[in-house]
Specification:
Number of helices: 9
Strand content: 15-25%
Largest sheet: 12 strands, mixed
Radius of gyration: 20 Å
Order of helices and strands: EEEHEEHEEEHEEEEEHEHEEHEHHH
Number of strands: 17
Shape: globular
Strand order of the largest sheet: 1-2-6-7-8-10-9-14-16-13-12-11
């Protein structure tokens, strides 16, 4: 790997390593294509590594330019036709509980083809000093591998230290690396997300999704209502209703702690949930100017509590997981892609959300929990 990419090579396995610091966070990203900065170090590693694996035939199918259309309506749903993902993706594991333990006999990311791994990323624990590899904290290591059934360009998985065999329950370190990955990208289209068990997670081994979608989503600028302003926690006012936390580069650790308190509370209450992390403008309860809407300095983290979904239940058009809740709809078949309306999308998504009374009760409990812990 080129030294200009800030990459080390691990002596034992020759696995490329991307060691980063907070100085590499990219601020003032613009949503508009004009005057965007060049790809960051992280972007180059993902793009080059992902394209190389696609050329080598390591994916389950060849992902070409996807047919895309924006559905008419106020939500601006971005629909894409991805038939092969619906056909070729690995059969999801049987999930019976949001708190299900890791099972080493089932598929996990310690069993993949090693060529699917693009690199490891880790935060520089030396504060800019040169620290030997063997002195880097193990919990900081995140393996970045291709998703062999991609939904978009660059679709990868961020797996915090796979050898720890953690179940699909968020940790503070996992949340932090997710936020930092978005901040390390110079592209406003790089998104990171998480599906809990019972919320269409297909593998019970801790991982987040990362991918590029070069279309603006409503969640990037949707209106919110303050819940706990001092913790930057808000309620999303637009459909689908959920919670939102906003952070900029100086407050990542604080944000990660708050998010984990939220998701830990959900796990304790057996509530399935999805997260979506994206560049976005600062939360506001008012309509914003064109300039404010365009600037993407910080990261919006949307958290949707939802009805649990266990077993093989699936929709024919699209499943409702992290990207669908955020307004990105990968359709499984051409007819639904061409004909589905915004009203029909809302009807499908609504089935997986909590009823209004349950959501408001949960909101009250969550706010009380966060104010006392």
């Amino acid at each position: 790997m080129q030294q200009s990419l800030g990459v080390r090579t691990q002596r034992s396995t020759m696995l490329p390593q991307f060691v980063y610091s907070t100085e590499e966070f990219v601020t003032d990203v613009l949503q508009k294509r004009e005057n965007r900065p060049p790809p960051s170090k992280l972007d180059s590693l993902i793009r080059d590594g992902w394209t190389d694996r696609m050329d080598r035939g390591l994916f389950r199918y060849l992902l070409e330019d996807l047919k895309t259309r924006v559905l008419p309506g106020s939500n601006g749903y971005v629909a894409q036709l991805n038939v092969q993902r619906g056909i070729e993706r690995r059969k999801p594991q049987e999930i019976l509980s949001i708190q299900q333990e890791f099972n080493p006999s089932q598929f996990n990311f310690n069993k993949i083809n090693s060529e699917e791994i693009m690199f490891e990323m880790m935060k520089d624990a030396g504060g800019g000093r040169d620290v030997p590899d063997d002195q880097l904290p193990q919990t900081c290591r995140t393996v970045v591998l291709i998703n062999v059934s991609p939904l978009e360009f660059g679709h990868c998985l961020l797996v915090p230290d796979p050898s720890l065999c953690l179940p699909q329950i968020l940790t503070r370190a996992a949340v932090q690396v997710g936020i930092e990955s978005v901040l390390l990208s110079s592209s406003p289209g790089f998104r990171v997300g998480f599906n809990s068990l019972g919320a269409f997670a297909s593998v019970n081994h801790l991982h987040l999704h990362g991918y590029y979608l070069d279309h603006e989503l409503k969640i990037e600028s949707s209106l919110v209502k303050p819940l706990i302003p001092e913790k930057n926690l808000f309620r999303i006012q637009d459909f689908p209703v959920g919670f939102l936390l906003y952070t900029e580069s100086e407050e990542v650790e604080t944000a990660a702690r708050t998010i984990c308190k939220v998701t830990d509370f959900f796990v304790g209450e057996n509530i399935a949930h999805n997260l979506f992390l994206t560049r976005g403008c600062p939360p506001s309860g008012q309509m914003q100017t064109a300039k404010e809407r365009c600037l993407r300095k910080g990261v919006r983290i949307a958290i949707w509590p939802r009805a649990s979904c266990f077993g093989a239940k699936e929709e024919s058009a699209f499943n409702v997981a992290l990207c669908e809740l955020a307004g990105h709809l990968p359709f499984k078949n051409k007819k639904d892609f061409e004909c589905t309306t915004e009203r029909e999308v809302i009807s499908i998504v609504q089935k997986y959300l909590l009823p209004d009374d349950e959501f408001h009760k949960l909101e009250e409990q969550l706010v009380k929990h966060l104010l006392t812990h």
